[in-house]
Amino acid sequence: MQRYFIKQAKIFNNQITMSSEDSYHINKVMRMKIGDQIIIIVDERITYLAKILMLNPITRVEIIKEIENNNELPINVTIAHGLIRREKMEDVIEKLTELGTYAYYPVIMKRSSVKYFEERFDKRIERFERIVKEASEQSRRLKLMNVSLPIKFNELLTIKKDFDYALFAYEDEEINSNNFKTIMQKKPSSLLIVIGPEGGYDLVEVQQLIDWGFIPISLGPRILRTEVAPLYLVSAISYEIELGEKNDKS
Amino acid sequence: MQRYFIKQAKIFNNQITMSSEDSYHINKVMRMKIGDQIIIIVDERITYLAKILMLNPITRVEIIKEIENNNELPINVTIAHGLIRREKMEDVIEKLTELGTYAYYPVIMKRSSVKYFEERFDKRIERFERIVKEASEQSRRLKLMNVSLPIKFNELLTIKKDFDYALFAYEDEEINSNNFKTIMQKKPSSLLIVIGPEGGYDLVEVQQLIDWGFIPISLGPRILRTEVAPLYLVSAISYEIELGEKNDKS
User: Fold this and answer.
1) A238 contacts B140? CB cut-off 8 A
2) Lesser CB count within 10 Å: N end or C end of chain B?
3) A70, pLDDT greater than 50
4) Interface pTM (ipTM) of the complex?
5) Is the distance from CB of A38 to CB of A25 less than 8 angstroms?
6) CA-CA distance, B101 to A230, in Å (whole number)?
7) What's this model's pTM, rounded to 2 decimal places?
8) Which of B140, B179, B222 sits opposite A141 (nearest CB)?
């Protein structure tokens, strides 16, 4: 069933007047009729079944009942990603949303192949938010992944304190005695994971990450491009904690 | 170090004359010089360190020594994917190659949103093979993922016999008592995994898959689009079998 995100403040008398954008989607894209049902997600917390009372020009719906539906990954996975090109970032944002990622921080790094222009990014954030909203609706998430404006490398170092563990994907095996699986066994409730840009980390950045206590992890023997590495990580986390218990022989 | 795939037949007297395409890459893209070293992968089996003897107009290299380098996923994971649009298929092929997938079969299914035109596909296969080659070089694979011409649904059913297990990703939880993790615990050496097209499976197809012994598996509570599901699966498989042993308390 089609899902729409709204704010609590939009509910009056058990009825909701949909935005013009959502009304358009209900009318023209989905071609729904009066009496058809949709799912309304309020403030990213509560899910209601609702039926359409009025369609045109603005759709109004009435709440039928609250429904249970928590599809969220039960761990805060925040990806801090070396700044990449817009089209690639849009693709990563869409896929990470579907995979259940909590937040996405683009990070300005020395070897990023793109420059960051603040004024351009303000416009982009709107588009990113629309991508997140649509991907959340289609993947049936309750929560919208938070996409931050690009942060500086120093800011990345300071947000580490908000997480149980901070990791960074690093292909140099020699420093990779640490193991992503071992970390997952500790059942963290929040993970900050850094992934370098296309050009990789600068050695100064690697040293800073280590100095600040970020743990280097390997993603296996093949070298994944920067736009594949975050998908690998969040997929692996979902597999580890969401796909039911293993038949351990312990 | 840059990697190039060649055939055994190209080696004479310990020297290799590179193709004009690879010569162009070495000369113009990588801007290498005589004496620089590259890695040569012969017949997807043997890896040599080689040095450049001659650059222009065709590059010739000399083998220095054989080097050990098996980065292959130690299990044959073959993805059978409901036919999707060309651009999306190219993206999936590139990412699946990096992730270590063994083979990719596009499958003509009832709800595929694209039609299959054989004559168009012949040209596309060439392009797919170039994508696979480049993605293999950058991810440091020895083996080139095999991309098949689209097969019919009935052919999919008959190739099942070549695999230890045949699975299909299916979002209907009611029939999903089976568990992807349980299958992985059996340490299969080959897996055929079917993923439906954008429109999902037709119910007749689901019934046929079940009748032929394909096992339905869930990919977690969120609904992944058809181009994300295969990435999730191969990432999870790599995580399970390549990222070192867990500290099980058994």
Assistant:
1) no
2) C
3) yes
4) 0.83
5) no
6) 18
7) 0.84
8) B222
